[in-house]
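debug: dumping io for the single-chain case to check the tokenizer round-trip. Nothing else runs in this session.
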Amino acid sequence: MKYFVTANGRLIEATRDGDTITIDGRSARASIEHVSGSDVCILRLGDAVHRIPVRRGPRRGHYDLSVDGFRIEVEALDERARAIRELSKSTERPRGTARLAAPMPGLVVRVNVNEGDRVRAGQGLVVMEAMKMENELKASAAGTVRRVLVTPGSAVEKGALLLELEAAE
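debug: decoded output
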């Protein structure tokens, strides 16, 4: 079984085959035993034996370890758990403030929302005219209009901030 372990920010890939663990091409016999009724594990790695206090972290797979007097924050995930985590990241909704900027220089023709309005993803927010064509700028995600920074008739440059949206909870 393959594991992905992040220890103090460093990613380590480990493969376990029975009682053998392989990290960075080096293999050693390894075993972990939980001491009943405590937060202590006994790690046997080759000929070395380590007594490791382990505290579970805030999320699945997160641990706070104390190894030989050093505190180490660890996230340990098997291949399946890591794949699920990566898939769920791709479906997370945006958080915080989203900014709608002018994609080209032009003239603001219409502002379809006001501060405090709730909008849905794909809803038209601002209509700009550039090169004699009207372009409707839409919300990339649902949220609430936090600030409107332009009015109809405003001339704007490329990249000018038009409005801000607070992402929906």
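debug: round-trip ok. Residues 79-90 form the longest helix (12 residues).
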